[in-house]
Amino acid sequence: MTSDAPVKVGILLLSPGVQLLDVAPIDILGMLEPQWLEAVHLPPHIIAQGAKLEYHFINENGKGPQQMTGGFRIEVTDSIDTCPPLDILLVGGPLPDYRPSPAVQKFLRTQYEHVDTFITICSGFIPALYSGILDGKVATAPRELLPDLKKEAPQVKWAEKRWTRDGKLWTSGSVANGQQLMVAYLREKYPKEIVDLTLGMSDIADRGQEFGEVLGH
């Protein structure tokens, strides 16, 4: 149900070259915003099930715009020092050789304690791993990296799935799996009626959690 207080959603961009598709799943959540539901002429009882969202686009120093893949740039609204406590934090995948600074690690651990939902997409697992957030948790990562990760980070319960959930922690495999993670998140958090309508209108298929699985087919 909508309420007066918006859900604070953070999108963390930790290096130039974060893939646009890594952060695009947030737009699936955005389709539950009342203004979008009103624009497609859904009835009031559906609109009342929507989500008021407040977006925060974050990088380490707060300077922008942030360069993304495909020539896109995203305006930065917050640094890791100015960002308020969030309800949802999505960590877009940095370049594979990225290693988080101590300040970024502290930010991630602090936000993890506060948020209701902590999401990593594709290589977004890297800063979460180095921050200790994945320790003892079920998580996934791009499929081709899992054999090495199981050897190098055995403290994590790595799973070969499109996405995983362990409490508030949601992780996706490769970049396109972020969309499937968000579909699963919506089905977990919001009423079935509004989720079915928005996904149906957008023709977003639910491919399931297991590789090779396509739900509804």
Query: SSE string, helix = H, strand = E?
Result: EHHHHEEEEEHEHEHEEEHH
As a percent range, the share of strand residues is 15-25%
Q: How much is the radius of gyration in Å?
A: 17 Å
Taking the alpha carbons of the first and last residues, their distance comes to: 30 Å
| Unreliable runs | none
Please bin the fraction of helical residues.
25-40%
Mean pLDDT value: 93
Computed structural class: alpha/beta
How many H/I helical runs?
9
Shape: globular
Extended strand count: 11
Strand order of the largest sheet: 5-2-1-6-7-11-10
Note the main sheet. 7 strands, mixed
Model description:
Helix content is 32%, strand content 18%. The protein has helices at 20-23, 26-30, 34-39, 44-47, 102-114, 125-130, 146-152, 177-189, 192-202, and strands at 7-12, 53-59, 66-67, 73-74, 78-79, 88-91, 117-120, 138-139, 157-158, 163-166, 169-172. The chain is globular, with a radius of gyration of 17 Å.
Which descriptors apply to this entry?
globular; 217 residues; single chain; 9 helices; seven-stranded mixed beta sheet; alpha/beta; 32% helix
Please give the structural blueprint.
Layout: E1 7-12, H1 20-23, H2 26-30, H3 34-39, H4 44-47, E2 53-59, E3 66-67, E4 73-74, E5 78-79, E6 88-91, H5 102-114, E7 117-120, H6 125-130, E8 138-139, H7 146-152, E9 157-158, E10 163-166, E11 169-172, H8 177-189, H9 192-202
Parallel strand pairs: 1-2, 1-6, 2-5, 6-7, 7-11, 8-9
Antiparallel strand pairs: 3-4, 10-11
